[in-house]
Amino acid sequence: MSAGYPPVDVLVVGDANPDLLLTGDTVPRFGQAEQLLDSADLLLGGSAAIVACGLARLGMRTALAAVVGDDQFGAFVRDRLREAGVDDTAVATDPAVPTGLSVVLSEPGDRAILTLPGTIPSLTPEAVLAAVATLRPRHVHIASYFLQPGLAAQLPALLDDLAAQGITASIDTNWDPAEDWNGLADVLSRVAVFLPNREEALAIGSAVLGHPVTDLGVAASGLSALGCRVVVKAGADGGIAFDDGEESATAPGLVVEVSDTTGAGDSFDAGYLAAMLTGVATEEERLRWAAAAGSLSVRGRGGTGAQATAAELRAALG
């Protein structure tokens, strides 16, 4: 994108990879046992990619900064992003490393994820800043913090650079495979919005506060005292926001028929960020956008199969 083009609304930073989504008898039994599945689908995955597609579907000018390999999976990712209307100018190709891949074992109410990192950790702060200079976003959203240790180590300095340019930022760390949950205090004090789910809020709250925390309100309130708004994704219960150490708003989810919950939290993120950047005034209404976008996404398979359009979201909100 050249300087003659309008800037994007959001640059999403993080992971982009195919998801191999398996349903049916998905709990592995070793000893060379063969199990029969109900379905298997190859879909666009990666938290950052799903958020980017959700934002584009809601009418936001959206770009993604990520790295894929020079392989069939990398081509698949690019094709799906372009089909969704996401600018892939800042998606780099690494010819020496394979594209990351997640195998999602999905069961009603829960799932397990096996991930090959591949190119996912390859994104550098320098590449993100170059994308910012080219695409001139109003906002930067960072996803999958724990899958990108190189970027994570330099994220406070990167966020300071964005702030100096007047660019706001948000983060959804996603799950820490090592379950250490370290290094986030300096990050959360520099972002406008942190978007964890319940379990992540409790784990990160325990790490940041320095003692085990089992109460969501205590964890999220403590994290919001660092200076960020904490917006907790509460599944079917919708969303809960915390500001300056206090709960500030709630909104319920929608009652919908569930096909697959993969990526629902990422669609929630997209709904919240779209509301925020569109100028929705109240926190309760921003949460309503987020909860509705997350709820509507579970109607189809995979993270992007049933993401809401702006018209669908407006209709759902009444």
Give the tags:
318 residues, alpha/beta, UDP-N-acetylmuramoyl-L-alanine:D-glutamate ligase, 9-stranded mixed sheet, 4-stranded mixed sheet, 11 helices, 35% helix
Short description:
Helix content is 35%, strand content 24%.
SSE blueprint and pairings:
Blueprint: E1 10-13, E2 17-24, E3 37-45, H1 47-57, E4 62-69, H2 72-83, E5 91-94, E6 101-107, E7 110-116, H3 125-135, E8 139-143, H4 149-153, H5 155-164, E9 168-172, H6 185-188, E10 193-194, H7 198-209, H8 216-224, E11 229-233, E12 239-243, E13 246-251, H9 264-278, H10 283-297, H11 310-317
Parallel strand pairs: 1-4, 1-8, 2-6, 4-5, 8-9, 9-10, 10-11
Antiparallel strand pairs: 2-3, 6-7, 11-12, 12-13
Helix pairs in contact: 1-9, 7-8, 9-10
Fold and architecture overview:
This protein is of the alpha/beta class. The chain has a single domain (10-26, 39-308), classed as Ribokinase (UDP-N-acetylmuramoyl-L-alanine:D-glutamate ligase, 3-Layer(aba) Sandwich), CATH 3.40.1190.20. It is built from eleven helices and 13 strands. Strands 5-4-1-8-9-10-11-12-13 form a nine-stranded mixed sheet, with helices on both faces. β9, α6 and β10 (193-194) form a beta-alpha-beta unit. The radius of gyration is 18 Å and the shape is globular. The model has no long low-confidence stretch (mean pLDDT 94).
Shape: globular
Radius of gyration based on Cα positions: 18 Å
- The computed structural class is alpha/beta
Number of beta-strand segments: 13
CATH class: Alpha Beta
CATH architecture: 3-Layer(aba) Sandwich
Number of helices: 11
SSE series: EEEHEHEEEHEHHEHEHHEEEHHH
Share of residues in strands: 15-25%
Side by side, the strands of the main sheet go 5-4-1-8-9-10-11-12-13
List the uncertain runs. Answer: none
- Report how far the terminal alpha carbons are from each other: 37 Å
Query: What's the pLDDT, averaged over the residues?
Result: 94
